[in-house]
Design goal:
Structural class: alpha+beta
Shape: globular
Number of strands: 4
Number of helices: 2
Number of domains: 1
Length: 82
């Protein structure tokens, strides 16, 4: 079954640049066709959020994103049906 990606932002943007990145991420997720696995979006998320300032990783069926200096998630992408 194909998965429809859904973005869940868990923290507000910390600056205008991060707000822009989050908007771009929301647009990417909204325009992505259903995928065999939402984790296939991880490379695109890593491209939007540079490794020096952010960490992007994958769980069993989702992608998580947090600021490099914080442990709380900034956002996650999961299957809309979860």
């Amino acid at each position: 079954m194909l998965q429809l990606p859904e973005l869940r932002q868990e923290l507000p943007a910390s600056c205008p640049e991060e707000a822009t990145r989050l908007t771009e991420l929301a647009q990417l997720v909204a325009t992505t066709a259903p995928l065999p696995d939402v984790r296939d979006l991880a490379p695109a998320v890593r491209h939007l959020f540079p490794e020096s300032a952010y960490e992007v990783g994958c769980g069993g069926s989702h992608i998580w994103l947090h600021r490099a200096d914080e442990s709380q998630r900034l956002a996650c992408i999961l299957d809309h049906h979860q």
